[in-house]
Specification:
The complex is a heterodimer. By secondary structure, chain A is an alpha/beta fold. The longest helix of chain A is centred in the last third of the chain and has 25 residues. The chains are: A alpha/beta, B mainly alpha. Chain A: InterPro entries: Amidase, Amidase_CS, Amidase_dom, AS_sf, GatA.
């Protein structure tokens, strides 16, 4: 077994026993990247010097018998919309091609404090807008299971790097499914925490009422360890939740006896690939054999979620992206006649087509005369969608369904049809609008491609979600499947 | 409700974007398709529904107005496309 195949707790043991050093681990990570990333294209920027420095620092501390965090020395990748001090952060946009942040985002600082070895920054759809990584201004990441297919998105680089065994874990961000959908397509674990559990300070904002950072890992236990490191109240993010943080790894008891599972019938209905549905129903049998019960439930407003999401997220994006004006950082157009032209030209040169499309949609939805018809209407429907979840959670501990209606699609297949692309997120978006936590875990293959199982929990009940996911993992082998690269 | 090239031009101006003729045409078509899809929200009666702006029950988050150290000016200027004397430089605003 290569060290990068080891779980985080195994790595901790091997590092403590001095059977392995953090420096060897960093070497193994860069070696794997050298072998595979020409094909996978997951990384935008490598942090070789910084990573080796961190690794040798950690090795020194372990040698001195210092107690270190469970993540110390573990090689990780960070999605390129999370700012890292001194390390190029582009959001996969031409606009920020040369941007080197002057501070760490809160999660970046927490990983640094835990002595995680940051291997590099991972590709994504530009400003996290997209579900295939084809909207990156720099390159299209490939799915390690089939290089002709997309890894999903927007955290496609994060999912592909973990699936390809380049890093032990990665951070991603999820606005409408951007952690869970790529995790599903690449056969890894992806957790979107409850809105507000993880600080967004230093996450380049896309849609502020929806954005949330979370881990992509090869096991549920690893996801629990990473969540432990990044969760918690942060005074730098006024929307972060002041809640007490439980011990997530301790919650992984393997016991799901009496767990009440609701299966929204809208999540396994029309548009869901029969083979995806089959894998999800087989997963229900596993839960049943472990003593959980399940029944169908109706979430009547599911069908309205995608329209609601695209109005709200694009509106928020059009406002958030107003900061990219070419004055303080990023692209500046050459020789503008005046300030207004500087704004116009810089933005037009810096942003790609999908980003412009969403800025246009959001600006329209917020503009005078249309605000009530689109933006306010969508906010009201968001209330109805959230009520579906509140009512279902009166009866059930967990909601379960597929993460995405299909497995990974081919590059270029949907790029010309924005609406078709948006509909890939139909099963992840309602969860984002409700703000509740959800995980995607591997539950089988369909025609050789991974299928993701989505488990959704009540707000701040990550422990229940992780416990159920972990119990499933303990009784199946799907998470051990690896792509041949 | 359908939108025309003139609407796209107006919105582009509000969003501070320059669009080519080809982009204007494409966005007119695509925005119409997306907005047509969004019209399905009108199937729902929301007269008595209050809007959700935010899922957490957080209201105004206040803190003491305390002086804290600022970032050093060299750092703030580190990514500036153009600077002069520790200030961001832009074309003249007033003629």
């Amino acid at each position: 077994m290569t060290p990068l195949e080891m779980s985080i707790s195994e790595l901790k043991q091997a590092l403590t026993d001095r059977k392995l050093s953090a420096s060897e681990l960093a070497d193994a990570s860069y070696r794997r990247i050298a072998e595979t990333d020409e094909r996978v294209q997951a990384f935008l920027t490598l942090n070789e010097e910084g990573a080796r420095e961190q690794a040798s620092l950690t090795d020194g501390r372990i040698a001195q018998g210092e107690a270190v965090d469970i993540l110390a020395g573990v090689p990780a990748g960070i999605k390129d919309n999370i700012v890292t001090e001194g390390l190029r952060t582009t959001c996969a946009s031409r606009f920020l091609d040369n941007y080197k942040p002057i501070y760490d985002g809160t999660v970046s600082r927490k990983l640094r404090d835990a002595q995680v070895v940051t291997i590099g920054k991972l590709n994504m759809d530009e400003f996290a807008m997209g579900g295939s990584n084809e909207n990156s201004a720099f390159k299209s990441t490939r799915n390690p299971w089939d290089l002709e297919r997309v890894p999903g998105g927007s955290s496609g680089g994060s999912a592909a790097a973990v699936a390809a065994g380049q890093v032990s874990f990665a951070l991603g961000s999820d606005t409408g499914g951007s952690i869970r959908q790529p995790a599903s397509y690449c056969g890894v674990v992806g957790l979107k925490p409850t809105y507000g559990l993880v600080s967004r300070f230093g996450l380049v904002a896309f849609a502020s009422s929806l954005d949330q950072i979370g881990p992509l890992t090869r096991s549920v236990e690893d996801a629990a360890h990473v969540l432990q490191a990044i969760a918690g109240y942060d005074k730098m993010d006024s929307t972060s939740a002041d809640v007490s943080i439980p011990d997530y790894a301790e919650a992984l008891t393997g016991d799901v006896k009496g767990l009440r599972i609701g299966v929204p019938k809208e999540y396994i209905g029309q548009g869901v690939d029969p083979k995806v549905k089959e894998a999800v129903l087989a997963a229900l049998n596993v839960f049943e054999s472990l003593g959980a019960t399940w029944e169908e439930v109706s979430m009547p407003h599911t069908d309205y979620a995608v329209a609601t999401y695209y109005l709200l997220a694009s509106s928020e994006a059009s406002s958030n992206l107003a900061r990219f004006d070419g004055v303080r950082y990023g692209v500046r157009a050459d020789n503008p006649d005046n300030l207004l032209q500087l704004y116009h030209e810089s933005r037009s040169q810096g942003f790609g087509p999908e980003v412009k499309r969403r800025i246009m949609l959001g600006t329209y939805a917020l503009s005078s005369g249309y605000y009530d018809a689109y933006y306010l209407k969508a906010q009201k429907v968001r209330t109805l969608i959230k009520q579906d979840f509140d009512e279902a959670f009166n009866q059930y501990d967990i909601l379960l369904g597929p993460t995405a209606p299909t497995t990974a699609f081919r590059l270029g297949e949907q790029i010309d049809d924005p609406l078709a692309m948006y509909l890939n997120d139909i099963l992840t978006i309602p969860v984002s609008l409700a703000g509740v936590p959800a995980i995607s875990i591997p539950c089988g293959l369909a025609d050789g491609l991974p299928v993701g199982l989505q488990l959704i929990g009540k707000a701040f009940q990550e422990t229940t979600v992780l416990r159920a996911a972990h119990a499933f993992e303990q009784h199946t082998e799907y998470h051990k499947l690896r792509p041949q690269l | 409700m359908s939108i025309h090239v003139q609407d796209v031009e107006h919105v582009a101006k509000l969003a501070r974007l320059n669009l080519s003729d080809e982009e204007k045409e494409r966005y007119t078509e695509q925005l119409n398709a997306i907005l047509k899809y969004a019209e399905k929200l009108n199937e729902l009666n929301t007269d008595d529904v209050s809007p959700t702006t935010h899922v957490l029950p957080i209201r105004n988050v206040m803190r003491e107005d305390e002086v804290r150290p600022s970032l050093p000016i060299e750092k703030v200027m580190a990514n500036a496309p153009e600077e002069e004397d520790g200030q961001f430089k832009v074309p003249a605003v007033l003629e």
